């Protein structure tokens, strides 16, 4: 693997007296899709929020493009090009689709907003048809497109996608994973945090499996699909 764009070592964090992450190591190379898998409560979302600066790290290091961002403010992390599309979409329901997209370039790439809008509309043509529609009235699939599109407006160097398929129909999940593969084909590095194991491993170069706040094993998609450890991690058998 080339020099990692994101390198996490010994990361610990949590909430109050509760420690959730217990020494996580993870790498993402430039242009790579890496899947972070695990059942509910494994610590995946806490990992995303800690790397993104939304939750304070208690120990360990997070390096982005070789710079330690472990104690960096989340706005500066966004400005560096590490952009997090959160679980649950977190769109602004009372703003239009266009206004939500424009907010994505508030901290980064504001001067290229018009060009990036056209790029997003090229990837998600449905959003162009709904620029004036209030985001809260859009379908679940359209809201997920909007959340990803908003992330792309900031010209990410690494895009963290937290449970992007959650709540979507099987047809929309298929479409979503196709779009993620398209973004990867354009050279974007992606950390895909998902419970949809099969489709994640189909498009990821490598994957990590997290249990109880720690990475238990990792490997290529083919390696993980061939091991019983993956089944045990999810089913406990």
Q: Could you characterize the architecture of this molecule?
A:
This protein has 237 residues and is of the alpha/beta class. The chain has a domain at 1-81 and 158-169 and 190-237: Rossmann fold (3-Layer(aba) Sandwich), CATH 3.40.50.300. It contains 10 helices and 10 strands. The protein has a 6-stranded mixed β-sheet, with helices on both faces. A 4-stranded antiparallel β-sheet has the order 2-1-4-5, with helices on one face. A hairpin with a 2-residue loop joins strand 4 and strand 5 (67-68). It is globular, with a radius of gyration of 17 Å. The two termini are 32 Å apart.
Q: Which regions have little confidence, pLDDT < 50, spanning 5+ residues?
A: none
Order of helices and strands: EEEHEEHEHHHHEHEHEEHH
CATH superfamily of the domain at 1-81 and 158-169 and 190-237: P-loop containing nucleotide triphosphate hydrolases
Q: Any idea of the CATH topology of the domain at 1-81 and 158-169 and 190-237? A: Rossmann fold
**Rg computed from alpha carbons, rounded to a whole number of angstroms:** 17 Å
Query: What is the topology, as strand order, of the major beta sheet?
Result: 6-7-8-3-9-10
State mean pLDDT (0 to 100 scale).
91
Largest sheet: 6 strands, mixed
Number of strands: 10
CATH class of the domain at 1-81 and 158-169 and 190-237: Alpha Beta
- Note the total helix count: 10
Into which percent range does the helicity of residues fall?
25-40%
Strand percentage: 25-35%
CATH architecture verdict of the domain at 1-81 and 158-169 and 190-237: 3-Layer(aba) Sandwich
* Gap from first CA to last CA: 32 Å
Oligomer kind: single chain
| Structural classification | alpha/beta
The outline comes out as: globular
């Amino acid at each position: 693997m080339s020099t990692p764009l994101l390198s996490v070592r010994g990361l610990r964090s949590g909430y109050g007296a509760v420690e959730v992450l217990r020494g996580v190591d993870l790498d993402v190379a430039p242009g790579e899709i890496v899947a972070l898998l695990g059942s509910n409560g494994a610590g995946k979302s806490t990992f995303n929020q800690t790397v993104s600066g939304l939750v304070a790290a208690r120990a360990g290091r997070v390096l982005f493009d070789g710079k330690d961002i472990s104690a960096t403010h989340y706005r500066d992390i966004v400005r560096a090009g590490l952009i997090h599309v959160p679980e649950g979409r977190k769109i602004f329901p009372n703003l239009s689709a266009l206004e939500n997209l424009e907010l994505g370039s508030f901290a980064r790439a504001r001067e290229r907003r018009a060009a990036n809008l056209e790029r997003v509309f090229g990837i998600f043509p449905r959003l162009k048809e709904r620029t004036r529609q209030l985001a809260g009235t859009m379908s679940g699939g359209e809201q997920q497109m909007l959340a990803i599109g908003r992330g792309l407006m900031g010209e990410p160097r690494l895009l963290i996608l937290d449970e992007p398929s959650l709540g979507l129909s099987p047809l929309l999940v298929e479409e979503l994973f196709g779009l993620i593969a398209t973004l990867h084909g354009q050279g974007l590095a992606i950390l895909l945090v998902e419970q949809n194991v099969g489709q994640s491993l189909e498009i990821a170069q490598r994957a990590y499996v997290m249990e109880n706040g720690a990475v238990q094993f990792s490997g290529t998609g083919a390696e993980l699909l061939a091991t019983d450890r993956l089944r045990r991690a999810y089913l406990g058998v």
